[in-house]
Model the fold of this input.
Amino acid sequence: MYATDVADDLSEVLYTEAQIQARVKELAAQIDVDYAGKEPLLVGVLNGAVMVMADLFRELTIHAMMDWMAVSSYGSGTQSSGVVRILKDLSTDIVGRHVLVVEDIVDTGLTLTYLLENLASRNPASLKLAAMFRKPEANKVHIDMAYVGFDIPNKFVVGYGLDYDGRYRNLKDVAVLNPGVYA
Ligand code: IMP
Done:
């Protein structure tokens, strides 16, 4: 799906498919260098990170592995609550592994703060974070984000895995959702 297919629901396209893909390639090139010889485990957070994981992972030229977690943040609508529950845990033992968490977007950072603490307690060799999008609020929390795709304005966005009420994940561009859709 492209922005033109749901133009009435969107107020502004922030990044096109081409811009996103170009940035993903840059991030992958950096990860290739930083993790050379380390065979990292990329941990995706379902469901939002599906698109960025699929694209980033295929761009890597080093050996890497993939696993997934699912969390619910007890939020509704467009606000995050910070109360997190693990719905699906890793299948991999991460003791001694180089873990790179892959996220779609970091907004308040509440979800990730919980997740990173939880993963750190399992004694990985290293634990870093890659997020495709970061909102200004994220700067208030002390999460060291090793890889960031784009800094975006503090607006509710959809596309490239990001949904509103389950919809728009299949939008190839990333766009600001018209507030009329959730008002
Ligand atoms: P945080 O805990 O506030 O950082 O939010 C984490 C999760 O909220 C993300 O992984 C997304 O699933 C969701 N989220 C935050 N902002 C947006 C947005 O603008 N569009 C869609 N989902 C969002």
